[in-house]
Design goal:
Distance between the termini: 45 Å
Oligomer: single chain
Radius of gyration: 30 Å
Helix content: 25-40%
């Protein structure tokens, strides 16, 4: 009985740790959390021991086993916390529940515990219960799942070691050495990405630290009174506990004179009854309909009573990104959540009241380079709300009065925003280096009909066909080297990259320029499209010929394929990265001809592995990947994950559609059977249960997807803050009610 009570305390503590770790995922790394937990824990344990004036608790009779136990425990805890930031909690716990199996094996082999038929039956029934609740299938088997599985093995070794230590050492001694041994391990892993936690994060850090001590103290006490196999089998109870945290929305119906056992519930959608339970779970088919709940009851005097409530369903309908954060807008025009690196617009609390309705579009800043980003939300009343890093446009104090009304379009670049107003004027804010102060730029007070961002500046096209460019000097953003070509016939922008701008002119003309290291290219007519990459550009003309411009391989090695590209070309694209994927490095291109052949050229194409393709019907490429599809749905894939000089070639079949992921992140290949094949950086750590994706988004080392059910997924480098807040997921809101 004592072991059961101690394990109840441990289970509650472990659940609090899991919730706290999820809350902290956007603020600090897993390693930093473990380091701070050890510091706080070491201080608390030392204070408790000193209070009891029992210095013997600082000593252990088995130091090697203490170190052994805590190295394995640290590895297990790191893998567990990492899994929590990437996988749903119930899935993490489902995998972790192999711990009793590993522990039973280790305890039987090394602790001479008996493994009888009753314990075997308990293990089997417990694990079957987990599968019934979670129903994981194969969807949780991925690289992150394997890390959590490895953590489970480490936990089993730790549990067996704890049982052995509990014979000779007190629980406080075991906790003291846990913090002492794990502290340098945590600091070693965390110091390079150390971040200053905010006040709320400190609250969660302290709660997690105390809960960790409580969990291990309770578990150690339980192991002093029962076999380790029996103790860890009780851990199966943790899944129902964690599954109840924040999963369902339940009407809170109160009646002082009613018999609650006689309540009857009827949920209806579009006039059809869809449920009779006390709770209701959102379904994809509910989108677009209201949900009505009728409740009937009976008071203690036999009097019948009834009430109703009508809910609307809110779900995310669009994702937005800046350099280091995501944000989500729902179907009623409210910004529901933001997540990502601290200080990059991942916290909407300061402007939440202004984002509760009416938002129609959101622009982001900081989308290249190493600057933290900001967001600017355009509302249907023509006002703009900003938040995020103040140096990149998260504050608009200098133009606040201009953003109260009349704004029609907002764009953001590396460090600033610009807004086009209904009267044809333009205002900008953010970093002055990137065009954030346009007050001294002539011609922006009227007549502007379209506004475009470049990476380091902005371009405004006026109603007389002229264009005004401003931004960072030395990158081409200010347009000084092509000023003579900006006076007339400008229609817009073909494409931009770090230091290349391709301007669209009337009659199929183009003006292409960069940072001044190469003379501008001016084409008077016949341009079909232009793509830019690094410090290069490639032009596809209406007559099927190709022209290259720039400094790196796109122009340098174009002579090798010029004769093959004088006619018959129907599409051009980037083709992965030949030497490196940096914006100033090498690049490769591909051209698709009308006979199905694909021609590659660029840096080191002759020395790298590039596929021979003769049956293509469509191509597309980014800095890090390239795809070609034929009429049979067979796709040839070129990838360069590491941005080094070795390209990987693969293929897949039965592909129905190819979708480019933003920010050069790769491609999503949709098969005929509805499954997905991800290509490029976006595939790393990607969930396998995305469903039918309606929108993809990407930022630095992190990716997001919105599916047709309104569910939002996020993955990538955990230190980038990839945990999606619950508010971004489908939810109910009350429309009308007869309740008091």
């Amino acid at each position: 009985m004592q072991a059961i009570l101690w394990m109840i305390g441990a289970l509650c503590s472990f659940c609090l740790i899991a919730i706290g770790a999820r809350e902290l995922a956007n603020d600090i790394t897993t390693a930093q959390l473990m380091a701070l937990r050890s510091v706080i824990g070491l201080g608390l344990i030392t204070a408790i021991i000193c209070y009891h004036r029992d210095t013997r608790l600082f000593k252990t009779q088995r130091l090697p086993l203490q170190v052994f136990r805590n190295v394995f425990h640290f590895a297990g805890q790191y893998g567990w916390l990492f899994g929590i930031t990437v996988l749903p909690l119930a899935e993490v716990f489902a995998i972790e529940f192999t711990v009793p199996i590993w522990t039973a094996i280790i305890a039987t082999l090394f602790l001479q515990e008996r493994f009888n038929s009753q314990r075997l039956l308990s293990l089997v029934l417990g694990f079957v219960g987990v599968l019934i609740i979670v129903q994981p299938g194969i969807k949780i088997i991925n690289s992150v799942s394997l890390i959590v599985l490895g953590a489970a093995v480490c936990y089993a070794v730790s549990h067996a070691s704890t049982k052995s230590l509990s014979v000779t050492d007190k629980p406080l001694t075991i906790l003291f050495y846990m913090c002492l041994v794990q502290l340098p391990l945590g600091v070693l892993l965390a110091y390079q990405n150390w971040q200053e936690p905010n006040l709320l994060a400190w609250v969660w850090i302290i709660l997690v630290s105390v809960a960790a001590l409580s969990a291990h103290f309770c578990m150690t006490k339980a192991m002093q009174t029962a076999d380790v196999t029996l103790v860890v089998m009780m851990d199966f109870l943790r899944l129902p506990l964690i599954a109840l945290v924040g999963v369902y929305l339940t009407p809170n119906i109160t009646c002082d004179e009613c018999a609650t056992s006689k309540y009857k519930y009827e949920w209806s959608v579009n006039g059809l009854t869809v449920g009779t339970g006390a709770t209701y779970t959102y379904r994809a088919e509910d989108a677009g309909f209201n949900i009505r709940l009728n409740v009937t009851g009976e008071d203690t005097y036999g009097q019948k009573t009834s009430a109703y409530v009508v809910y609307g369903v809110s779900k995310t309908d669009k994702l937005f990104a800046n350099m280091r954060a995501f944000t989500a807008k729902n179907t009623i025009g409210a910004v529901t959540a933001a997540w990502g690196k601290s200080g990059s617009g991942n916290d909407i609390s300061s402007v939440e009241s202004n984002l509760s309705s009416g938002v129609v579009d959101i622009a982001g800043s900081g989308w290249t380079g190493f600057l933290n980003g900001a967001f600017a939300a355009l509302k249907e009343d023509g006002s703009v709300v900003v938040w995020g890093n103040t140096s990149t446009g998260g504050s608009a104090a200098s133009v606040a009065s201009d953003l109260q009304s009349g704004v029609e379009h907002v764009v953001g670049n590396r460090g600033a925003f610009a807004a086009l107003k209904a009267d044809g004027s333009v205002v900008s804010w953010g970093s002055t280096e990137f065009g954030g102060d346009s007050s001294s730029v002539l011609g922006l007070d009227s007549g502007v009909v379209s506004l475009h961002q470049t990476v380091t500046g902005f371009i405004a096209v006026k109603n007389d066909g002229s264009a005004i460019a401003w931004g960072k000097p030395g990158t081409g953003a200010d347009g000084t080297q092509v000023s003579a070509y900006l006076t007339s016939d400008v229609e817009g922008v073909y494409d931009v990259s770090y230091s290349v701008i391709a301007l669209k002119k009337a009659n199929g003309g183009a003006v292409i320029w960069g940072d001044g290291r190469a003379a501008p290219l001016v084409i008077s007519e016949g341009v079909k499209t232009v793509i830019t990459s690094s410090v290069a550009a490639v032009v596809l003309k209406d007559d099927g010929s190709v022209q290259a411009w720039g400094l790196n391989g796109a122009a340098k090695y174009f002579y090798r394929v010029r004769d093959q590209l004088q006619s018959g070309v129907i599409a051009i694209s980037e083709a992965g990265t030949a030497t490196n994927g940096s914006y100033s490095g090498g690049s490769a291109f591909a051209a698709l001809k009308d006979d199905g052949t694909v021609i590659f050229w660029g840096d080191d194409v002759t020395t790298q592995r590039y596929p021979t393709i003769t049956d293509s019907v469509a191509i597309d490429g980014t800095l890090s990947s390239f795809v070609s599809i034929n009429a049979l749905g067979e796709v040839t894939i070129l990838e360069d994950y590491s941005r080094h000089s070795i390209n990987e070639i693969s293929s897949t079949s039965n592909i129905k559609t190819i979708t480019r992921i933003p920010k050069d992140a790769g491609f999503a290949l949709s098969r005929n059977d509805g499954t997905l094949h991800l290509v490029g950086r976006v595939s790393q750590r990607a969930p396998t249960n995305l469903g039918v994706v309606s929108q993809w988004s990407a930022r630095s080392s992190a990716y997001a997807a919105l599916n047709t059910e309104g569910k939002v997924f996020s993955w990538g480098e955990p230190s980038q803050g990839i945990v999606v807040p619950n508010l971004a997921q489908p939810s109910f809101y009350e429309l009308e009610s007869s309740f008091d």
